[in-house]
Every structure is written in structure tokens, then in C-alpha cells.
Amino acid sequence: MASHIIAQAQAYLPNIPLTMVSQGAEALVFTTTTHPCLPVSEQTDTTYIIKYRPSKPYRHPKLDAQITKHRTISEAKIMHKLGQLGIRVPRLVAVDAPKGIIWMHFVGKLLANGEMSSLKNWLWYLERVSAPGSATDAGTARILTQVGREIGRLHMHDIVHGDLTTSNILLEQPHTDMNDTDWEPVLIDYGLGSYSGLPEDKAVDLYVLERALLSTHPVFSEKYNAWVLEGYALGHAEVGGKLGGKKCTETLRRLDEVRMRGRKRSLLG
Length: 269
Ligand SMILES: Nc1ncnc2c1ncn2[C@@H]1O[C@H](COP(=O)(O)OP(=O)(O)OP(=O)(O)O)[C@@H](O)[C@H]1O
Known about the structure:
alpha+beta; binds adenosine-5'-triphosphate; transcription
């Protein structure tokens, strides 16, 4: 990432110490311990995330400004809505839409091997480092079922994530008394999120996660996916009762079609 983009972020955030944690196609992500609204005397050592969408030089400046503002507002609104609905998301702190900046609470912690507790890293840790069998034990089943449950609840509210990869699912331990195997999943990155009641859009969300699990955890992906789908049904039932069950069935039926299209596409190259 060009240093002038980091310099631009720093210029928008004067006197805020920034540590870069990620540079994706859309945004730069930093951590900081400075809260944007609190006076110095009330700052704590809480860690926050700052997500910054830089301007794209290849876009017309006016259009670019509109897109940045729109995407930032859209992401923040979805996060806010999900928080209100009781779905686990990073807590919003502040938004500066014209500058493309979202502040939120940091989620997750370091695993025993020093990696961040994304679902991807955690499953890799279980598969490669942890005690044999732990990748398929009841604790893993519980967490993947919880992942599916969160997605089910999201979809029952007609919100689709748009980029459900195993890096966009972080695991956190909200209570201090939770042990090392006890985690709660939090879905992050609503940059491609949208409102949709269509089974097709929801099925594509599930398919993207299914493919991500297959490519990053090929040995156990079938089991992992089965647990996710079990939880998906639970999330629907929890929010929508009988209607939830019907909606879940519709989406899973559509998922079969999406899978079939995916297979055809890969056969045709
Ligand atoms: N609230 C958060 N707490 C902890 N880490 C976070 C948080 N938000 C983002 N991150 C970290 O920053 C990374 C990138 O964030 P995010 O996916 O939102 O940005 P992005 O630019 O859309 O990334 P990509 O293009 O790679 O999908 C995440 O994978 C995660 O490691």
C-alpha cells in the first residue's frame, strides 16, 4: 500500500496513534487505543479498530467521494441495525462518512500461537497444533453451530453479508471466566452487506462460506458445513418460529441450485 494513503489516513486522524493491521482491496484497517470523543483524562487502554476507505485515483473525484460516503454509511448502518437486533457485531464508536472512516470496538484476541482469533486461524490451530481430534470434537461443533445460528438470524432479518469468509468471522470471549475452548463468533466486514429477502442472495452467502471452508479446511469442511447448516436452521427457528423454518427450507433448496451452478461453472472452466 502506497505510503501516501497511510499518510492521508493519518492526516484525517491527527494525534491518533495508528497501527496498521490489514490492507484489503477496499480499506485499510488500523488499531488505536484512542477514543475519538473522550477527553485525554478519560481515555483507557481499550483497543479500537479504525477502518479507512481511501479514495480511488482511477474514479472521477466527485463520483469517488459519493461512493466512499455511500459505502461507509451503508456499512455503519447495517452494523448499527444488527447491534439493535441483538446480533453480535463490533460495537460502533464513530463514523466520518465523507472521509470514509468507521471506528468500532476491537473484537477477538490472540490465540496461543500468536495468531488473531478468526475462525480460519482457530480452525487451523485446532487442525495443526491442538490435541488430535479437537477439530471435530463437541466444542468445535458448538462454535460452528453458533456461526450458522448467527447467519440464520441475520438472514431472518433479511440482511445478507455479501462476503462470508472464514477471515470475516472473529471469535471472542465476552466473559472473563470463559476458558480457552469457549468462544462466541462475531461476523465482521459489512462493506458488501445489503438488505435482501431473496433466497438466492442468502444461498449465495452460505455458498461463499461453504467454499471458503472447503478451500481453507479441506479435510474437515464437510463436517464443518454440516454444523453451520444445523445452526442456520436453529437461527431461523429462533427468530421466526414456523415461518423461519419455511424460509430456511427455501434458502437451503436454493443453495442446492447455487452449488449445481458452481459445479457446472467449474466443469466448463
Ligand atoms: N472489529 C474488528 N476487530 C478486530 N479485528 C478487525 C475488526 N475489523 C476488522 N478487523 C481486522 O481487519 C481485517 C480486515 O477488515 P475488513 O474485512 O473489515 O476490511 P476489508 O478491507 O473489507 O478487508 P478485505 O478486503 O480483506 O475483506 C479483518 O480480517 C480483521 O483481521
